[in-house]
Design brief:
Blueprint: H1 2-35, E1 46-50, H2 64-77, E2 83-84, E3 88-90, E4 95-102, E5 105-112, E6 117-124, H3 127-136, H4 150-179, H5 184-206
Antiparallel strand pairs: 1-6, 2-4, 3-4, 4-5, 5-6
Length: 207
């Protein structure tokens, strides 16, 4: 029974680790870019104006997720897709400014409800910014509207799978190490060194 449990855990550890390796690589590279403040090149944004834009009646009175849901088909009609971020309503000017996020792209749509026009500003931010964007999303900010695009819903599910998978790899790795007697001393030294480094860093930051 013990040998069978060991074999199953070893195989799961291997195959789940292989499956998660691309996602772990994304998070690892994005932490590098975040830690060293590396971003993509500055690119002149593209601007275009769309006329005869139809907006649902009473859209200015909506807030939160209701406003985001009402804006999605409006953006789709002018060829803009992505995750809607914090929406600004300029009531006196009858305008709604909608930031739309995509990995490697920043898009801002300025809707003029009275003139029925939409000005679209689109800027390519590069590979580094795309990884940083994925690392920070879905994130704790603006949670009442977060996850309003298909790509963000998929990415949120994959991020959850990665977190649970890493937790399993950690626990299964500790189990596999305890079973291998020849590796216990080396593993104990490395585990102790890791714990000392972690708690030492926490103490240095929090003191």
């Amino acid at each position: 029974m013990k040998k069978r449990l060991y074999a199953i855990t070893r195989d799961l550890h291997l195959y789940i680790g292989l499956f998660l390796s691309p996602f772990v690589l994304v998070f690892a590279l994005s932490v590098f870019y975040l830690g060293h403040s590396l971003t993509g090149p500055n690119v002149t944004p593209e601007t275009r104006t769309v006329t005869d834009v139809h907006s649902p009646p009473g859209i200015e009175a909506l807030n939160g997720r209701e406003l985001v849901d009402a804006l999605q088909p409006v953006l789709g009609s002018i060829g803009v897709t992505g995750e809607i971020n914090f929406v600004r309503k300029l009531t006196r000017e009858h305008r709604i400014v909608v930031p739309v996020m995509l990995p490697g792209k920043d898009i801002t749509v300025d809707l003029n409800l009275q003139a029925r026009t939409a000005t679209v500003f689109k800027e390519s931010t590069g590979f580094a910014d795309a990884l940083i964007h994925l690392h920070k999303m879905p994130g704790p900010h603006n949670v009442n509207v977060r996850g309003n695009s298909l790509y963000m819903k998929i990415w949120r599910a994959l991020a959850d799978v990665t977190s649970y998978g890493i937790l399993f790899l950690t626990l299964s790795g500790i189990y596999l190490w305890t079973v291998l007697r020849a590796e216990r001393r080396v593993g104990l030294v490395l585990l102790s060194a890791g714990c000392v480094s972690f708690f030492g860093a926490v103490y240095a930051i929090c003191r």
